[in-house]
Amino acid sequence: MSTTEDTGINGLAWDSDRQQFWVSSLNGEVYPVRRDVAVTEGRLEPARGRSFSGNYLRLAYGAGYLWGADYDRRQICKINVKD
After folding, report:
1. Long-range contacts (CB closer than 8 Å, 24 or more residues apart) made by 50-58
2. Cys-Cys crosslink for 32: which of 47, 57, 68, 81, Cβ 3.0 to 4.6 Å?
């Protein structure tokens, strides 16, 4: 079980290309998680790198893209997370 200071996490996806998790938060942000901290300390903390705004209640990763279910807009969004 992991803990976090972000109490609004509501989406989680494993990025097999970058070997990291992405989380979405009720604060309107999507960000990568520091894998080393998650594994060694059991905490989900933001990693350096690409983060962006978005209100996605569910996340998935596949075919090189992060996918987010945006319930406000009633659509599934294809999110390019490549550097």
Report:
1. 50/81, 50/83, 52/79, 53/28, 53/29, 54/24, 54/28, 54/29, 54/30, 54/79, 55/24, 55/26, 55/28, 56/11, 56/24, 56/30, 57/10, 57/11, 57/24, 58/10, 58/11, 58/24
2. 47
Amino acid residing at 65 = Y
pLDDT of the chain along its 83 residues, tens only? 567 777 788 889 999 988 888 999 888 889 998 888 888 888 877 887 778 888 899 999 999 899 999 888 899 999 888 76
pTM above 0.85, yes or no: no
How far is it, in rounded angstroms, from Cα 69 to Cα 73? 9
Residue 1, number of CB atoms within 10 A of its CB: 3
Which amino acid is located at 80 in the chain? Answer: N
With contact defined as beta carbons under 8 Å apart, do 81 and 65 qualify?
A: yes
